[in-house]
Specification:
Blueprint lengths: L2 H22 L4 H8 L1 H17 L3 H18 L13 H11 L9 E7 L9 H5 L5 E7 L2 H11 L2 E5 L7 E6 L1 E3 L8 E6 L6 E6 L1 E3 L3 E2 L2 E5 L8 H23 L5 E5 L7 H8 L4 E2 L9 E2 L2 E2 L7 E5 L3 E8 L10 E7 L6
Parallel strand pairs: 1-2, 10-11
Antiparallel strand pairs: 1-17, 2-4, 3-4, 5-8, 6-7, 7-10, 8-9, 11-15, 12-15, 13-14, 16-17
Helix pairs in contact: 1-2, 1-4, 3-4, 8-9
Length: 343
């Protein structure tokens, strides 16, 4: 094969793959797999280009680099806001009334979100408390006592919800207390996807000391589960994003803080577009997974623990914290009330 056809194929192949995947997005299993594998495909492209340069195939190396660059740009197009469904009117009115409680947000709010492996020992209470967070979300925690100990350390309250079909429990701890909306409930759980996938959104109204009452949503998106579950997973992911977005809009998205284990990277544009349609904005949190691959240190490739806020908040800082040998790093985000909306 002459260099010209080879060079054209090297340009067209990666570029067309990126364009096709960007158009389909995560609505198909093939598209979802390509989006997940984007960092690995990039490393493959770098390897191919270096090998071609070593072999003195300059033209093919240049077009291969251009093809992978075009494909990567196509995959990383900004998400487009999409229409969001409405909650049932009675439930939506109640949620909006709860989120309208008086707030006195004059100081920053620090939020820690961490997805743990329930098969591994939980991190120490001391190491988590040392991050000085006002709200802590721990997905995959299977030891309720740890949440209570953490709350005692922070001088606050803990909410622990066991997993319905998995070992992955959820703990939300606040430096303050949880408000009871309507005087009866302190949290509401919205299932996301099929029961076996473990997806859910948990709504609470933590009253942070010195900050006020905040509408806060902790999210864990559904997982594919077994082999047959992979074919349903893209649709479940979109359905879950719609449910979360509808909940945020019913609350009045300006004051909402939403964080948790989305299980998908930022290249899943349709998931992000659904939340944008609810008036939320994604925070640029750093990659947190994989921190380790078994006994080997990993190179974080994806930001699977993600965070969203409404217009009432602006970002002070965000970072992924090194907390030892666990597979995923926690994300610590500090938010400041927007000067134009603070009360």
């Amino acid at each position: 094969m002459s260099w010209a056809p080879a060079a054209m194929m090297a340009l067209a192949g990666p570029a067309l793959l990126g364009l096709a995947t960007s158009a389909l997005g995560e609505t198909t299993l093939t598209g979802a797999v390509v989006l997940w594998a984007e960092p690995l495909l990039f490393l493959l492209g770098v390897h191919l280009v270096l090998w071609m340069l070593w072999e003195n195939h300059w033209a093919t190396a240049a077009t291969t680099a251009a093809g992978f660059l075009l494909g990567g740009v196509a995959l990383r197009r900004p998400p487009v806001p999409t229409a969001v469904q409405d909650l049932e009117p009675e439930w939506a009115e109640r949620m909006h009334a709860c989120s309208a409680q008086p707030a006195d947000r004059r100081v920053p709010v620090r939020v820690l979100s961490w997805t743990l492996d329930p098969a591994l020992p939980a991190p120490s209470v001391h190491s988590i408390a040392a991050q000085n967070a006002d709200i802590i979300v721990l997905h995959g925690l299977n030891e309720p006592d740890r949440a209570e100990q953490l709350a005692a350390r922070m001088g606050g309250e803990a909410l622990f919800l066991p997993g319905a079909h998995t070992k992955a429990g959820l703990a939300v701890v606040v430096r303050g207390k949880f408000q009871y909306c309507g005087g009866q409930e302190e949290s509401w759980t919205v299932p996301l996807g099929e029961p076996g996938g473990g997806g859910r959104a948990v709504l609470t109204f933590p009253e942070v000391e010195g900050v006020g009452v905040l509408p806060f949503i902790a999210v864990r998106m559904p997982r594919p589960g077994n082999l047959t579950g992979w074919t349903r997973w893209p649709a479940e992911l979109q359905s879950g994003a719609q449910s979360v977005a509808a909940l945020a809009r019913a609350l009045g998205s300006g004051r909402v803080i939403l964080t948790g284990d989305f299980g998908v990277p930022r290249t899943f544009r349709k998931t992000a577009g659904t939340l944008l349609g609810a008036g939320l904005h994604e925070l640029p949190v750093p990659p947190s997974w994989p921190h380790r691959l078994g006994p080997l240190p990993g190179l974080p490739l994806h930001a699977l623990d993600r965070a969203w806020t409404g217009d009432d908040w602006e970002l002070n800082s965000t970072m992924a914290v090194d907390m030892g040998d666990l597979p995923r790093r926690p994300i610590v985000t500090e938010l400041m009330p927007n000067a134009g909306t603070a009360r």
